[in-house]
Structure formats: C-alpha cells, structure tokens
Design brief:
six-stranded antiparallel β-barrel, alpha+beta, globular, Pnp Oxidase, Chain A, 30% helix
C-alpha cells in the first residue's frame, strides 16, 4: 500500500521541510538524496527513507515508483546521498522485492514498512 498522491503533494510543502531536520541526525533511516531533474536539469534534495547495506543503500519508495526523485535517479543512473552526516556518490539503481528489502531496515522501521505493505524498493551501490 503506497501513500496516496494527495498526501504526497501536501508532504512536499508541509512535512518535507520538517523531515530535512531529521536527515541531519547521526542516527535513523532518514537521508537527503540529491538528484538532477531529468527535464529541468535543476538540482533537488529530497528527504527519503534508507538503510545501509553492504556496498550501498536500500530505499523505500513510500509513494510508489512514479515519484520524480526516483525517475530522475533512474534517468541519470546516479545521485548523491547525505546520510548520517556523510556524503555518498551512488550509482546503478536496481529494484528489490519487498520480501528482501523490508527485513534490511532496522526495527521499528521494518515493522512500519510491513504494516504499510509497501511494495516498491530499490538499491544503489557506492561509486568506486
């Protein structure tokens, strides 16, 4: 179950500015993904839910796979991630089934993701 579009639009202007504060913490699943608009060429920073995994990161697409930030990353094949006060250059977006993705998130976030019945996840690898 992805979050409905009307909530996504409200969050863009109301919740996301607050979520940016959480991305500066040295703990938790929140990060900022920096991506380039596939049409505009403009740089964007979007708060996301992520988990570290060997060689890269796992992302929950809480609004589904039709969101602009994800489509921008797919088009470019790369992005930057600001997570726990560090920056990472990431490449090679790959979808991942929920059955593999959800257990990789720390508790209690994996329980929330299970409750939400999210289906859309993907991985990015650290650029070498």
């Amino acid at each position: 179950m992805k979050i409905p579009n009307f909530i996504r639009h409200a969050n863009k202007y109301l919740t996301n500015p607050v979520m940016r504060l959480f991305t500066a913490l040295p703990f938790g699943p929140f990060a900022l993904v920096e991506h380039t608009g596939r049409k505009s060429g403009k740089t964007y920073r979007t708060p996301v839910v992520t988990a570290r995994q060997p060689g890269g990161f796992l992302f929950a697409l809480t609004y589904g796979d039709h969101v602009d930030w994800y489509r921008n990353i797919l088009a470019a094949g790369h992005c930057r991630l600001h997570w726990r006060r560090r920056d990472y250059a990431l490449v090679d977006p790959q979808p991942l089934p929920a059955s593999q993705a959800v257990p990789s998130f720390p508790a209690p976030f994996n329980r929330v993701l299970r409750w939400m019945r999210l289906e859309d996840f993907f991985t990015l690898q650290e650029e070498s």
